[in-house]
Amino acid sequence: MLSKKQKRYLKSEAQKLDIHYNVGKNEITDSLITMLDNALRAHELIKVDLNKSVVDETEVMAIKLSERLNAEVVDTRGRVIVLYRKNREKPIYKVEKYV
């Protein structure tokens, strides 16, 4: 579980990111989970955009995605979800400093 300071740090880092991942009308599929899993493994921190066709609320989708991906929800704003999962082999973000 991330502390408030760690989330604040990751939110500031997420502002520098572009949105590269979209959830469409098919919502959560196995191929989407695979794609996001690979993205988290490579980048640790990603932004996911929900299309207007997605029925569920942003917070509900964030929880569903975080559970399936074993990731932390850093932030939800509008229809954008920020997810984080530490890469144990090659960590990019030094969240340990912000305890």
Tally of helical segments: 3
Low-confidence region ranges: none
Main sheet record: 4 strands, mixed
Note the beta-strand portion. Answer: 15-25%
- Give the overall form: globular
Widest sheet: strand ordering:
1-2-4-3
Per DSSP E runs of 2 or more residues, the count of β-strands stands at: 4
Describe this structure in words.
The chain has 99 residues and is an alpha+beta fold. Helix content is 37%, strand content 20%. It has three helices and four strands. It has helices at residues 4-14, 30-43, 58-69, and strands at 21-23, 45-50, 72-77, 80-84. The chain has a four-stranded mixed sheet with strand order 1-2-4-3, sandwiched between helices. Strand 3 (72-77) and strand 4 form a beta hairpin. The longest helix has 14 residues, at 30-43. The relative contact order is 0.24.
Write the layout of secondary structure elements.
Blueprint: H1 4-14, E1 21-23, H2 30-43, E2 45-50, H3 58-69, E3 72-77, E4 80-84
Parallel strand pairs: 1-2
Antiparallel strand pairs: 2-4, 3-4
